[in-house]
């Protein structure tokens, strides 16, 4: 009984204690928050969902609750197990299977069947605290975003404590540290020679070679690995070098280069170079920007050549200016060395199909003795000269040797080599490289073989003093160069005319006479100029003696300066001739008495009055042959004979001669050659930047080369193209956008575009718009210029076509855009003239006054068109074109046509009365005839406003602007 009471009392005590426990989560008695079923149920569902979404759970496998490390078992209490399971996954999220089971023994739960993921076994307690173990990603961030391999090394050494080994991805490292992807080794080889040519340009060298070169270009055949190298003074020479190389391939191997691979250097992407590739049908493969590895074979060949050049220069102990000859020597030998890339064959053997000959090879820089020509020595002087061997003749079967006495390269087959001694060990000459000319010492009658002499006794000699010479630093081959600035190389000096072109030899009309020193006088200078052809190649070298006219003052040194040139619009009058005597100082290089000055007898470059004096001299000279200047273009000279008409058009000192009297043309050229220094350039192909192409159908005029240079200057060679030069319904204003900080580029581009309209009438309106803001250009104006350039890029080869079958009948179109300028509401006039189907004159201009109606704007445009029409009729009459019938003038405004035909004027036409009388007068006298034309057929529409792309394309076709790629 006592025991029963005692047991009952204990139960009541437990109940009272249980009732005292209160759960703050579910607000009930009998348990606390740790054992709350509602709380644990919610926590388990949230924890399981969270872990299932964030962890990669693997399939479960039953394991023993026995510890594998110590072999001991473990038990946990119910509350602890509930607490653990509340924070750990209870079931496999993939299968729904419970993690473990076990019988209840009192308040304990021995677990004998626990399922864990297929990873290294861990204890349940460790699993409960897994979320607190730092991950590799966390240590990666702590260590300043070190690489994952470095973090794993530290973790494996136990320096970071317990670390989760789960892999991770770091977006920040990917964005901030991503390197360029490695390039796969190219194992492919072309199947035939010249299927693929690799090329690259090296330079500029800090030291010019003895030939004046600062660059070299290498061409590598992909199939044979044979290399060709060419030294160049300037990158611009690449065009001529490649043209010659392509012709050599076609002539010597009867092949054409199929694919040409290079980087994106300017010399490879310029228009002229691309035109040459297109003419041969060669595909040009360019590397991606900043990815020179795609041109790896050419790059590797450059490294190979330069490594060999350095070794040759060091072994021969010669100075840096010999690098050009060393490069040629290196390529000559590399082409004869087996290569594992081509199955240990030599490039020479792969290209020519036969083994090369090695018996002619000699050591670079070795001492050699060249047999002198009989006229170079007398009977008691040495018969040979010690020289430095540099390489092998390119066009002659001989050796290239440097002569330290004459400072020239000798090419000779009569050479004795001392290959055991270098030239610098034997030479006592102090060389100064002053010429790169080659002396051809290769007599045809001599047949003395080259031999290698036996070893002579060793004798001590003075070493060769360094004979390098620093040439002048000229980077651009084409600008003018004054006399007192050194010429870059001796080739240019040899090609240039005598610095005293007319002073040193008799001339029919000497330009100067020496006189006593009479002030004032003008100083002079020599100017050298390299003339180029339309494809960029060098045509000739030119020398000019100019006076420093920038020191002259108006009213003191000169008064009249006007000189007519061939005009596009009009020149109606000539100023009175007022010749004035001019004195100047003797030119540099002319030795005369210091008290003497020169009296100018003919026109001289540089003086303000020089163009005027030149034109007066030319016109008076040609008049002796019966030529007369046209009354309507003072630069047009003509002569009519029984055999036909001869025409001469003069633009400063360039001229075009044409006509149907062939004997008269020959007589004219002979006469001009006797009177002036003149060069006959043959059939017209390039004149004042215009490229003229002849065909049986007619003439094609373009400025593609000029447009290409303009795009390069604006750095738009890789830009996208547009279909129209002006954006539709867009008007420029003086206040739009932000002011340009440096407007010089804008002004240069607009000036170039103005000249480009000579053959591109389709951009006349657009250029007219942007040229109005040269004084204060803004960002919107510059954007309009860039749009014009992008339009030009898409219509690169567009130009005028003058048909040979076109009838010589003049037609005119007149149009106006009323109040089109939003700033001042002035109208825009546009007109064009066609001789048959050939466009010969056009204009887009803003009207001077504000028109009060569209009729007034159209009528003012008619008046301007009539003025141009009259001048063209008179000019065509001088050219022998019949203008007896009235010229049709087309206008799309009926009111303007009615006013022109109505000879009664009233207040509505009073403000344009002068224009009305002007048009009516010539209408009555039969100079013109007005016709109505629909707006669809109005060709002058393109000169007055922006148009949609379809309309622009139609007008371009109707104006005979055709594309004619080379």
TrEMBL record:
InterPro entries attached to this UniProt entry: DNA/RNA_pol_sf, GAG-pre-integrase_dom, Integrase_cat-core, RNaseH-like_sf, RNaseH_sf, RVT_2, SH3_retrovirus
GO biological process assignments: DNA integration
A molecular function (GO) term: nucleic acid binding
Pfam families: gag_pre-integrs, rve, RVT_2, SH3_retrovirus
Chain intervals with Acidic residues compositional bias: 486-496
Domain Integrase catalytic: 178-355
Region ranges (Disordered): 475-518
Domain of life: Eukaryota
PANTHER family, sorted: GAG-POL-RELATED RETROTRANSPOSON, OS10G0432200 PROTEIN
Protein name: Integrase catalytic domain-containing protein
Lineage summary: Eukaryota, Viridiplantae, Streptophyta, Embryophyta, Tracheophyta
